[in-house]
């Protein structure tokens, strides 16, 4: 069964979002709403840190990768933006070479935007299930650079950060096993990274219904109910919205992890893994606990995954 063998994260030093107001291009009123209603406090973003440094910062921390480079068959790069570097530069390929992953097939996933991180976890397991070598692994590297205002803020929704996660995945494992996954796409208007006004209204109208549906589907695949969940790890978009979704599942506030909204900002598809790293470090999950994580990508894709710690 698909399992996370090791997880590492990296983030630039976070600074108050008020220091980024001019760069983000937001008004005083929007800034107040982001901090008071959405829960954003600081954002992990640094203009001087390159995409390659962000990616390598997480991947280089994987201790079990060292000495097992030949076991890595796939490197998956979930993205929301198509590319942050001009051709033929490839920060990811540079990092793969630096890590010595010469045997790995490397490719990106970007059709599901910020939900691509959970897709990569499910896909990595499916690919490894076809491998004859039980020691074969896959490496997911997720998280992106926030170049320019358009890639730094989703108007009325989120402030984007640069936290990254490196996730080493195996076809077998005792901890953090993927037991249920579901995703669905609801076409929403808007031809850019940020939706237009009509698309934003349509997205808001279908958000709760579509997210509830994929959560129910993932729980059904896992053979569980919401009452079996120890924790809910939503993506880092809007504290009130996350708590509302968790409460609808019957979870208590301390079972809904939203601390990283104010700590990092919304770090694209890396949110589920950054949050897992945090709750693991804090000792909030016990062996055998089931937990839910969700992610939503503009466009719009809704995804949910249930794992067993």
TrEMBL record:
A matching Pfam family: ACP_syn_III_C
Keyword Metal-binding tagged: no
Claim: Transferase is one of the keywords in the record: yes
Gene3D superfamilies noted in UniProt: 3.40.47.10
Record-linked InterPro entries: ACP_syn_III_C (IPR013747), Thiolase-like (IPR016039)
Keywords for this protein: Acyltransferase, Transferase
Residues covered by the Beta-ketoacyl-[acyl-carrier-protein] synthase III C-terminal domain: 219-308
Name of protein: 3-oxoacyl-[acyl-carrier-protein] synthase III C-terminal domain-containing protein
UniProt organism field: Luteipulveratus flavus
């Amino acid at each position: 069964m698909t399992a996370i063998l090791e997880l590492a994260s990296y983030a630039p030093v976070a600074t108050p979002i008020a220091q980024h107001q001019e760069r983000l291009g937001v008004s005083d009123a929007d800034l107040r709403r982001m901090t008071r209603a959405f829960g954003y406090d600081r954002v992990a973003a640094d203009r001087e840190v390159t995409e390659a440094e962000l990616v390598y910062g997480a991947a280089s921390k994987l201790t079990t990768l060292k000495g097992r480079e030949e076991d890595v068959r796939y490197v998956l790069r979930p993205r929301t933006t198509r590319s942050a570097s001009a051709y033929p530069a490839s920060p990811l390929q540079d990092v793969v070479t630096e890590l010595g992953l010469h045997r790995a097939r490397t490719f990106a996933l970007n059709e599901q935007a910020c939900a691509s991180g959970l897709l990569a976890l499910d896909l990595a397991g499916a690919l490894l299930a076809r491998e004859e070598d039980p020691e074969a692994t896959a490496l997911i590297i997720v998280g992106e650079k926030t170049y320019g205002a358009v890639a730094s803020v989703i108007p009325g929704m989120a402030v984007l950060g640069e936290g990254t996660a490196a996730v080493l995945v195996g076809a077998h494992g005792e901890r953090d096993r993927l037991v249920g996954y579901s995703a669905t796409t609801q076409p929403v208007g808007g031809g850019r990274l940020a939706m237009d006004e009509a698309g934003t209204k349509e997205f808001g109208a279908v958000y709760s219904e579509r997210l509830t549906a994929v959560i129910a589907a993932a729980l059904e695949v896992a053979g569980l109910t919401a009452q079996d969940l120890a924790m809910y790890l939503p993506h880092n978009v809007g504290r009130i919205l996350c708590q509302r979704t968790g409460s609808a599942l019957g979870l208590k506030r301390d079972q809904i992890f939203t601390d990283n909204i104010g700590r990092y900002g919304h770090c694209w598809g890396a949110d589920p893994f950054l949050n897992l790293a945090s709750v693991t470090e804090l000792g909030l999950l016990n062996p055998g606990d089931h937990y839910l994580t969700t992610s939503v990508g503009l466009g719009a894709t809704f995804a949910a995954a249930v794992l067993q710690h």
